[in-house]
Amino acid sequence: MSRRVLVVEDELPIRDMLVFALEQKGYYTLEAETYTEALDKIVEPYPDLILLDWMLPGGSGIQLAKQLKQNEYTRQIPIIMLTARGEEEDKIRGLEVGADDYVTKPFSPKELLARIRAVMRRSTPTSSEDMIQVQGLKLDPVSHRVTANEDGLDMGPTEFKLLHFFMSHPERVYSREQLLDHVWGTNVYVEDRTVDVHIRRLRKAISTHGHDKLIQTVRGAGYRFSSKVS
Amino acid sequence: MSRRVLVVEDELPIRDMLVFALEQKGYYTLEAETYTEALDKIVEPYPDLILLDWMLPGGSGIQLAKQLKQNEYTRQIPIIMLTARGEEEDKIRGLEVGADDYVTKPFSPKELLARIRAVMRRSTPTSSEDMIQVQGLKLDPVSHRVTANEDGLDMGPTEFKLLHFFMSHPERVYSREQLLDHVWGTNVYVEDRTVDVHIRRLRKAISTHGHDKLIQTVRGAGYRFSSKVS
DNA sequence: TCTTAATGTAACAAAAACATCATAAAACAA
DNA sequence: TTGTTTTATGATGTTTTTGTTACATTAAGA
Questions:
Q1: Per the database entry, where does the chain bind DNA (chains A, B) (predicted)?
Q2: Which of A7, A146, A225, B157 has the smallest number of CB atoms closer than 10 Å to its CB?
Q3: Nearest nucleotide (C1') to the CA of residue A212?
């Protein structure tokens, strides 16, 4: 599991400190000093997390976050914002825009790393661009295609994401709420029951070769993607 | 998973609305109208989240938050503050004091519930997810599966919870009331004898390989999960 | 042995959880 | 713009689960 963190911070000493702490802990780091530079780095393969200085010259930190959260593919990348003490305004706007957490400068590396861990744990490892295959059901994230025994399957974007998530997290029950968080994303207000419908559509889409059995209902708990019989 | 939410709000209609929405979603609720009343409710077992009206008479909402965040034990309870539109001052002070998020009145229940979800997930550390195994009987909390010598077993949610509890607390007698507290949860009114029925169902479910002997009746006391012969 | 309290069991009705469908709104493409 | 696809939701139908009751069985002491 690659764990790549993009550090967007214009002050070199702080950036260095962050990079040092991160690499110490085994993360790969990317660095950007400006808004433009950051955008250059946010391409596939996407980083797994972005540490974003809110105080970029021209307030472009907020700008960047907003932009990322609007794009379907970058929306999932968790963002931890770095704010100066007292810049509470920023925190508010940050949470409004969809940042996942914030850390106030000056911060201890320990605290920061703890928050990174927490945020990462609950986010999808989007890094895997590899083809996933289970019992003849193939999903290729790169070409954005699903095939069952070489037959192409048709499904909507949400079903694709749902299947992608399931296939990369098999043998594990997810409650509807967890699925909403992981597939729809945080800060989205959708009914629990909506998950049912998409599960239904996904099952239908992959049912031609009997793959719908892979998606199992776990009563009272949620859904599970499993190749074992229930 | 206990999900108890304390609602601190002096206006009855809003409090009612909140409580209704929360219970609709399966949360247990506690209510408080004033600062003092709130303090009374914040005792063990601590609520898992506090919805705090910032506009309590006398500004005591802020007071309360500050106090909670200063105490070692209550500090970790996440707080979502309810602010009136435009009261940016409050939001700022709220975050300064340590609130975890805020919602602006008037708010949609949907948004509120989504934020509750997000905040709870942030704070709840994943509880024991280890597989438990006793004499070939395996329970995997992650995939939510029970197998006996590799054969999958079928049981209802309550039986699963019951078995989970037993397996993580073996060699110890539990009275029916204790089982109700631990498995069904507190403040649930259910007959004692109902436990018998679920014990019966659980035994039946795990009996294929003789594991029903693990659940032993202790006359006059309750039940015990034990790998030793009785 | 008999009595009695405690526990086991099956059946049933009510509630809860889930599946499915139709529809309207939203997003998207032509 | 118009037409098409996708999405979210409420309504409704279906299945599973749950709690309770009534009766059967068991264990322990008198």
A1: 129-227
A2: B157
A3: C19
